[in-house]
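Service request form, structural biology core

Requester: graduate student, group of Dr. S.
Request type: structure prediction, single chain
Budget code: on file
Notes: please return the result as C-alpha cells.

Sequence provided:
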Amino acid sequence: MKKILTFAALFAGLSFAASAQQQDSVKKDRAEVRQEMRHKKHMRGDRMGRMDNKTPEDIAKMKTDRLDKELKFTEDQKKDIYAYHLDQAKKWKAKSEERKADREARKNEMKAEREEFLKLLTPEQKETLKNKMAENRKDGFKRGDRKDRQFKRRDMDRKPVEKKAEETVNVESSNS
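Core staff response, request fulfilled:
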C-alpha cells in the first residue's frame, strides 16, 4: 500500500512539474512573438518611411512600382494605376491636412477653455491644481492602474442579483 501511495505522490509531483514548465514555455513563446511583432512594426515604419513627408507623386510612384514588381503591368496599365494612386494620394493628403487643421483648432479651443477655467480660481486653488498636475506627471501613466480602475468602475467582481419568478408574480398580483 505504501508503494502505491509513494508512486501516486511521485507521479502527481512529476505531472505538476511538467505542466508548470509547459506554461512557462508558452509564456516565453508569447513574449518572443510579441517582441518580434514590435520589431516588424518598427521595421515597416523605417522601410516605408513617413507618408506625411512624401509628395502625392512620390506615394503614387512607390505604390505603383511595388505592385508592378508583383503583378507585372503593361505600360498602359502602369499609367492608369499610377493615375489612380496619384488621385488617391492627393485625396489622402487633403484629408490629412484637414485633420491637422481640425486638431490645431481643437487644441486652441481647449487652451482657451483652460484659461477661462483658471480665471475662476483663486491663487491658492491655482497653486494646488498646479501641484496636483505636477505630481500626476511625475508618476506617469501606468497601464495596470487603468485596467484596475476599469474593473472597479464596472463592479466586475459582483454578480447581479436575480429575482425569482414567484416574487415578481406576487408583486404584480398585489398591485392589481
